[in-house]
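Homework help thread (please don't just give me the answer)

Our assignment gives two proteins as sequence + structure token strings and asks us to describe the second one. The first is just a warm-up. Here they are:
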Amino acid sequence: MSGNEDIAKAWAFHDATKYSVREEAEGPAFAMGTPPQLENAIWEEDRSLEPYPYKIYSSLAPIPLPREFPRSDVPALDALARVGTETQAGTDQPDLATLARIALFSCGVLDRRTTLRGGRIIDYRAAGGTGARYHLEAYFVCGDLPDLPAGLYHYAAHDHSLRRLRSGDFRGVLVDATGGEPALASAPVVLALTSTFWRNAWRYKARAYRHAYWDAGTTLSHVRGLAASCGLPATLVLGYVDREVNDLLGVDGVREATVAMCAIGRDGRRPPAGHPEMAPLDLPTKAISGREVEFPLIPRTHAASRLDSAAEVERWRAAALRRTPAEPRGRLVPLEPLSPGQLAGAPVEDVIARRRSTRHFDVEAELPFEAFSTLLDRSTRGIAADCLAPGAPALHDCYLIVRGVEGLAPGVYVHHPGRGDHGAGAVELLRQGDFRQEARRLAVGQWYTADAHVNAYYLTDLHDVLGAYGNRGYRLSQLESALRAGIVHLGTHALGALEHGGEVVRLGAVGSTSCDDEVVEFFSPHAAGMSYMFVTVFGRRRPSRR
């Protein structure tokens, strides 16, 4: 079943994968579901089945990729804030080094690792992933590039190389599968992201399907910033015939499935008519687990949101929602973002290299108001996407629990992009007070949320989104929120060592999770009828203790 039919299936999945904390005699209990249908939220029942975090084509030779690149002259915060339709003359044709840069700093392994109790080693990827359960794979479909023949390539994160899966120009398959999406039809390179759901579900059960789009959104915030730093346009593509794209990539659409694409670059020429013969791929890969446990809600929900024909894709894309956010009723505080001349000039790849998940915040100091303003302003510019109306408001509202921002009373706020002085936006005070303990409760007891200067919650009116986009709107709403939050996360590091009041301020952020219904209740009545999508927390990092 596809598109706009039977949206009850998206609601059923959403309700079945909600988090909650209930009080029991032994203490608080963490559960997933909607009463009375509750279950343990975490699996990990068989440690011997812990999935291997890489897909490795065992019979294909690697195509080595460079790791050193010329520095971009585009400041990271400028690159992250670009819509994706901008381009610069003479720089819209990527090459192998461009693909290497995008792959390494979005899906690649950087020089960061942790050894856990028991000896397990985590090699951290450039973009964060839920629970460090890295389950996304990146594929490039390209025409002839200056130093890479046309083909379908898989990015092997474990050794930073490409494996060629098909030879020839298969972009026409994607043009057909998207009903002729213009940005994709003129792109020399298309990035496709897939999720191998079991690699995340081993820990998070069926909620891994949410995480597929959270992590895709986070990764795509990197991809968009990297493309912009190279002067390349980048457009997200979520409307496609699932079976045709999965067949091209050689994935089954059930165990591993395409979750998003991104058209990169523009050369003004459509791919040649037709395409080379596309035989089924039967390439051996290294087993990731002794066996895999299926959580039926994942394939059921994914199948309910598929699109089955190019005509259906075109109708789905034409349904782009232009929502009308609620008018402010409370006191508005205009944002005061830093001017371009006040921003650090580090390129986005340097920012990504120093990105971390920050859980230790400076509870003794406040976050400068201009830093708070800049992060909200730069993360809410437009996003070029096949299914989002240009210039339309985001599909979500951003609610804020503010603990320690200069000039803002502690309390609960909602962000209004585009309002305030010079269109920089404003925040509306909904409720004043100290809500540190409530922030911790909402985040399933995670302590760092009480210390963070800001907790940013992304809530969507799923009734409107699913009414416009059908079940596939669930994919979009999760991804869009996570992408915006990913820009905030990178933005905290892009602000660098901010000089403020005679001292150096360093910022950080971390994604979290929350009790769905309690979040909506907490932000109500303003958020009544909304649904929780994503949360990220940010603020001043605690100084190193020596």
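The one we have to describe:
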Amino acid sequence: MPSSPSLAPGQSPAPAPVTRDRRADLVVVLAALALAFWVTSGMWWDPNSRTITVNSSDQALFEWLLAFGGHSVSHGENPFFTHLINVPHGVNLAVNTSITVYAVAFAPLTYLIGPPATFLVILTLNLAATAVAWYWLLSRYLVSSRLAAGVGGLFIAYCPAMVSHANAHLNWTAGWLVPLLIWGVFRLRRPGRAVRGGIVLGVLVAVAFSIAAEGLFFTALAVAFFLLLWALHPARRAEARAALPSFLRGLGVTALVAGVLLAYPLWLHFAGPQRFHGTGFDPLIHSEDIAAYGSFPRRSLAGWAGLGTSLAPNPTEENSFFGIPLLLLAVGCFVFLRSRADRAFRATLTALGVTAVVFAVLSWGPKAKWDGRRTDQLLPFGVLDNLPVINAALPSRLALVVAPVIGLLLAYAVDELRARPPRHRATGVAWAIGFAVALLPLLPTPLLTSVREPIPAFITSGTWQRYVSPGGVLTPLPLTIDVYPDGQRWQAYALAHRQGEFRIPSGFFLGPGGPEGRGRIGPVPRTFDSLMDQAGRTGLPPIITDGSIKQSLADLHYWGVETVVLADRVHGAKFDVDEEALRRTATAILGPPERVDDVWVWRVPPA
């Protein structure tokens, strides 16, 4: 029967010679780093001036979060709530992707090299660390072959979903957390380790919540579902029953430790000011197209060859996109392993297979969609979407659970083929060709990058300090939201370079104000920001009346804005911005501007 160990830490395979193991470890680490630098290579030429083309808004947000995190540490401010944006209400960062642990841990680097460069360092390390962490889990606990562990770890770290989320998502690319959490969970089954294991897992849970809360939730769901299926299998029932007391004690310690560490963030998340339920994104839009599972991603060799598709809601959410060859290979690996497995390992394979299928179906969202065409067929997620916490998740991201399952099947299959090679050489060649045909088209290509508008000298030189009182409110035009990220970029620069604080109305964040009490992106629009958005987006200055002037001034006074600033070049994350239309509109409301350095400045008259 097979030599493949079950998915349970603590059952390490017999070690190979130490020198050979270390050489293999080094090769995988170097391969992981090389691929990470390859994927992010477009930004390394000049991190301060280049941006990820398809998602410059999220990049600007994470850069701001890094700057704010360092500022909160050095100034003793609350890292989970801020009044620097969305004046006068502030923003509850505990319900946003606040990456608090990263912001605090990398604060010295942020002050040293700036938020954009720190963002790039973390993004690159995330990708490499994910490969290394999965390789570590596989090679130390799950398979005997270092080659098998390398194949599995590198695939999971650079699968289409991870490369897609490398388009600026520092939270989702922190995939190194998942194998550590899995290791921590299975470690609880060891007798006498409940307290120590629970403390370690509790700390890991707290770290994961502070970097990628949604990812932690998905990991917990997937691991719990897998364990339930595994424990109910007749071949594992006795083992599960024996391990249950120690496991439950460890989970109790985990809950206590994580609860203490996360008490305040959890209170803010569920009961604090500016909280909301649900999400600002439509689950119908952010659901996986069924056909996407057999399609190729855009940032891959297949996509470079013109075989990529646009079935994802946006380029950052290609959460499946495995391609038909890999799906066939995964099924082939499953059948092959099952044919050689003993009863105990079949329980593991069955639990893995069912978990992958269930999460794939859930990723299809509330209504089925095939090749871009939505049907009225209600799917399981449509029933679950009204449940608390689940209604805050994007269904398409549930597909992220499938990639590690495929990676495990690939690793197990390679391990079995090396331990018990096929009798006929042609069979081994066929397997090698199958792996090449399935994996080579998915090799990642570098992220698309472009030059973004520079931060004005008005900000970098500190001139702004003469136009805003300490802690006062300044706003760029257009007002800062996801498609106009300049305000938070300027603020991040000022914070990271210790120039002091200025606050801004609006901002890119999730907050209350959506339909039926759900969340929305940014605050509810008012007259002034709506007029500016219309001008910048269309290039057609709106008609300004006495009423709109009066209401615009009331909005500016509501926010406490002292100074309005228009840069010569405004960065639009999704479209070009017409600066001339903005200047004419602001002039019609506030009168002629003052030219200061490289910006236009309007002083807001007192109420």
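TA reply:
I won't write it for you, but here's a hint about the kind of observation we're looking for: The CA atoms of residues 109 and 238 lie 51 Å apart.
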